[in-house]
Each structure stands twice: as structure tokens, then as C-alpha cells.
Amino acid sequence: MIRRRRVGARTPDAPLPLRAESAGPSPRGGVKAPLAYVVAATVPVVLLELTIDDRTVRLIPLLILLPAFPAMVGTVRQTACAVGWVLIVITAVLMYRPLPSSYDYGIVMVLACVLGVLCVVTCHWRIRRARELLRVRSTAVALQRQMLRPLPILTDRVIVDGLYLPVEADRLVGGDVYEVVASPYGTRLLFGDVQGKGLPAIGTAFAVLSAFREAALREPTLTALVDDLEQAVVRHNAFAQQAGEPERFVTALVLGIDTSAETQAVNCGHRPPYLLKADPVAPVPLGDPGVPLGVADLSAEPRTVAWFPFPPGATLISCSDGVTEARDATGAFYPLVERLGAWANISPWEVADHLSEDLSRHTAGEHRDDITALVVRRTD
Predict the structure, then answer these.
(1) Interval 262-286 mean pLDDT
(2) Alpha-carbon dihedral of residues 348, 282, 174, 371, nearest 10 degrees?
(3) I need a labelling partner for 288 at 20 to 30 A (CA). Which of 29, 58, 183, 299 fits?
(4) 0.70 cut: is pTM over it?
(5) If you average pLDDT over residues 77-100, what whole number do you get?
(6) CB neighbours of residue 37 within 10 Å
(7) Which residue spans within the chain are E strands per DSSP?
């Protein structure tokens, strides 16, 4: 199932640091006391052992397997206590009801000790591995917060909310990027999609975001801002070529919202947004989509600014390919326009919630691309 992921404050934070011997479920979680389960499991085994008259059928050696449970879900201390408990129970039962020979008794005790030690060592290794994964995740979360700001974002012009879900479950950041900057020239917004996947794509995304954050405050016109983004991608591609990595382009949509009733837009090969106040809901007509960032030299036409009405109280939504090209089990595309028509008069966060839940139902939780949707409500 696709679960809505909010970046930063709306994204689950990194797990809290593990205590000295804590990894796996907390004693207050679903498995409250692994040792209690081990003790409870010994009772029926001991009762059956003492009840069965046939001396050739012995169940008590089965207890040597019980410490494997706390080794998987508990702490080192719980696992060691479970091993000690099992050794005590086995010893007591075999003293009351001995095995046929001392050799058999020795085999059972040696196996119990060896498997007990292995369980303790395995538990210790599991906890150390969990700590290493925790450090890696903490680093990823820190990187995520540097790249993508927490949602929702509020400026004096707009409220921006949405959903963000990288296609790879072990990654917190994908190829889709966004940013909102309150500048002296109004609020500037960036929606982008980097070509490709993986860490090189993230590097390109970071280059675009850094350039946008700086240029949005410095450049008075939207075309000058986009020119700075173009140069940032070109410089990054030059560095990538020297490092033997593939060059990448970035489809982007840059918006400028000021005191005017109309909004400026420069489209660099990105899908146009949808204006929910329109009836029927349709993509905003921005004209020629232009070429993506990083390949402007391939086009003889310069990028131009388009204007479209974006009145106060209206909602604008920009989606990535992961939303518009999502398919169900039969191969049918997600009916985005049809769904947006029913959400025209609700808040941005409700639009994002409805879209997340509805998209999850449509795809049955399976998606093949990063899913990003930014919902912008004009407030002034």
C-alpha cells in the first residue's frame, strides 16, 4: 500500500538512539517480554515430558531451541537469561527423570550450551547491525532535510502541501524535487524531476535546488532565474562527465506569484499544473513546454514566461509522472483529472490526503516511479 510520506516534519524522523542492549521491539511494544514467552513455552513441554510414560519419547531436549526467540526480538540480557533458564529447567527435569545414559545427558547439555552461546552472539550481532543501519538512516534523514524542506510550507502568498514517496523503499529522497522561496519579488516555486534514479540523480537534484534557493532571492525576473538553473545543471553535468558519470537533464516548472492576479510560469519540459477552480479541471495552458534544464543549447528558441490566472482561494496542483502514469492491475492509467474535479473546494492538505489514499487504492500499493504531488493554495 502506498503510504503518504511528508518530507521533514511530516516524514517519520530517524529512530531514537538505541540503548546499550536494545534493538528490536521495545518492552512496551508488541513483544513486551521475550523472556516471559520462553518461560511460558517451557511449561507445556515439561508437563508433557513428565506425563508421557514411554521413556523412549523425550521432549525436554526441545527446550534448547527456545533462546532463539529472544535472540531475534529481544536484548542480549534477555537472551542470556533465556539460555540460563533453559539450562536450569533441562538440568532439573533430567535429574528427576534421567536419560538412559550419562552420554545422552552430556550430549543434551553440550548442545544446549553451544546453541545458547550462538543465540547470545547472534543477538549481539543483530543489535550492532541495527545500530549501523540506524546511523545510516540518520544520515539519510539529515540529507533529506537539507534537500527537501518540510511540508507544508507557508509564505505570505501561498500554502504548499503535498505528498512525496520515492520509488525505492530504502531511500528517503528520489529524483523529484521541489522548493518554495519567499523573495523580494514574490513567492517563487520550483517543481522538478531529474532524469534517472540513484545517487547521481540526487546529486543533480541538489545542484538545482541550491541554485534555485540562491537565484530566487537575487534575480528580479523569472527568465533570469531559470537561466541560472540552466547553468547550474550544465556545470554539474560537466563535473559528472569528468567523474565518468552520465549527464542528466531536469524537467522543471518555475512559478512566480506576486501581488498580481495572474501568475508567471516558465516551463522547462515539465507537465503543466492543474487549476482546481477551473470547470472542468484541465491542465493550465502554458504553451510550448520548452526543453528541460541542461539541454537549452539544443533549442533555438529562448525560454519565455507564460501568464495564467491564479486568484486568491484557488488551488494549483503539480504532479510527477509517478502520479499521472500510475496504472492499476489492468493497465489503466490513474484518472487524475476526474478525481481533481471532486476536490476543488477542500484544503490543500485534504487534497494531498485524498490523492494519496485514492492512488494507493488504484495501484494496490505498487508504483514504478517516484510519486510527488505539490498542492498550492493562494492565500492573498
Answers:
(1) 85
(2) 70
(3) 183
(4) no
(5) 89
(6) 17
(7) 153-154, 158-165, 176-183, 186-194, 250-257, 262-268, 274-275, 306-309, 315-319, 371-378
